[in-house]
Amino acid sequence: MGNFFSRFFKKKTRTSRHENGNKRIPFRLNLIFALVGILFAVLIWKLADLQLIQGNYFKSIVNKNNSSTVYGNVQRGMIYDSTGKLLAGNKTERAITYTRGPKVTVNDMYQVANRLSKIIQVPTKKLTKKQMAQFYLASSEHQKQMATKVSNHQALNPDQLVEAELKLAQKKPPYQATDQFKNAAAIYTSMSGAYRLTTTYVKYDHVTNQEIAKVGEHAKQLPGVQVGTNWTREYPDGKEIQPITGTVTSNQAGLPESRMNQLLSQGYSQNEAAGNNSLEEQYEPVLRGSKSQTAIKLNSDNQIIKAVKQYPGRRGDNLQLSINAKFQKELQEMVKNAQPGGNATGTYAVVMNPNNGAIIGMAGVNRDPKTGKVSQNDLGVMNNSITMGSVVKGATIYGAFKSKVITPESSTLTDMPIKNGGSIKSSWFNKNGSANLPLTAADALEVSSNSYMMQLAMKEGGFHYVPGAPLNLSPNIFNIERGYFNQFGLGVKTGVDLPNETTGIKGPGGYANIGKSLDESFGNYDGYTTLQVAQYMSTIANGGYRLRPHVVQNVRSTNAKTGKLGAIRETIMPQALNTVPMSTDELRVLKQGFYQVVHGHSKYKTGGALAELNPEVSAKTGTAQTFYNGQATTTLSLASYAPSDHPQVVVALAMTNLPDNAESNNTDLAKNIYRAYWKDVQHTDK
Predict the structure, then answer these.
(1) Is the CB of residue 447 less than 8 Å from the CB of residue 396?
(2) Which SUPFAM superfamilies does this one have (predicted)?
(3) Fewest Cβ atoms closer than 10 Å to its Cβ: which of 5, 102, 122, 604?
């Protein structure tokens, strides 16, 4: 019986365990099903997030990786004179262009250049040995061959190996520099200047119909090569205006060397044309315009499958100058013809509006005394520093007013030779003291008294003059004099809208050169530019505003129908760089003195030859004792304005190293300039 119950309970126990096991199996399955369900939910949520929430973001990434923009050149803005006459225009020419694809290698370009060289001919005169070596090594096969010739090539990293190969290929060229090879190398050089998906010019001059046809015929074998359009500068009114307008580099020459890195950072390609100097350089952002933009889509092999022009580009804006082209030509001719013989080294002239700073004409020539050859140098008015002489005396008198050593009501001093130690300095009309004269400040300007100016300088320096005594002046007198000169623009940049202006030449100061401070007072020491002299006289003519000179008066669009000047986008407004604080009486004295230079009653007046002009002219002449090649010469200058009672035009000029006895060259030239101005620029009832 015990065994029975024992077996019974054992069986029951086993049965019970089996039943519990059956109950645990569904729980495990349920757990698995639950986990799978959760994973499916997470997956569905993630898919929804990718498609609905972040879908646009990933689409933009895909589009970014599979689409690009190709930029195309547009026509450059043109340059006109004040009357609307075209000075620098554009000539349209057919061109062969190359657009570098996204995954194009140098070996690919090598192959295309070789094929294209059998179709077109390009100039090769400027091709260098380095460029020929680069072309040869662009071939992957040639590069491998050259690598084996480089000593210890296995120890070099890739960059070092390329550099070593290039040096070796230049030193021992592994190629024959045939005409065909050089033609292909020149083509490759142009092509290699293009960055990814940028276009460069391979040939832009004298492209023949046959070349156009063959490029089209072999288009499949010349990926990236197309027929396009190029614009080059032309000068319908003559190239004499180029020193002012500047020039544009050719696509063949590429970007200007001095500004290459700057322009590359602005999105230029290496072989792109750009303004090279003068206005073309200064106003490059205006003249350049904005490039066209074509959106392209690429397939997985980076081949273009779609191209859509998104922006046609906008041609550059035009510049309208304040310069009158007809007057400018006459001014250039007058300056050229004003050259005497001997040691004369050049003449420079500026004509400007004193009330707004607009330059109406600027011309200059250099002359080689050895050969007599005269060459155009219009920019010499702003980068040639000249010892001008007495034209600066108005600034000297102004400084004396401000230093309170004289006043407009009390300014009389006696002209006399100045004797300091062993030296004697005097006025041109009173070298030995036989013409000692009492002079007011206006009278001193009329007769161009050096003695008067030297006495002012000594008073400003706190020195009591005693004839024969040493000149015991503080060296600070140089700073005092130059400080007043600077206010008028003498010895500082004028701010003209042209690059590379000079500040002038400043002679050494200090006590060792203290005697030169007297020379400084009458303009026979420091050097100034003709443009600075024009700005100085304009400041007095307009009542004390030192205005920034400019040759551009308007930035204008292009008329879509006529292709000529369009609407004004920007007008260059007068800009005062500083104001010279002259009282009404101080200004009156200066203007009275300049008027007396021409119309005064003294037999020593220096500008009487201008009295025949109408409207009336006020002026200050200048004579500086100079030297050239060891011989004494004379530099003549002149600063003037007209009409005297209501100034509308300033004429400033300088003539360097004339014969020692030269006297009227400056006034003769000034008379011709004024007559041409009133005839061609501003007609007046005279």
Answers:
(1) no
(2) beta-lactamase/transpeptidase-like, Penicillin binding protein dimerisation domain
(3) 5
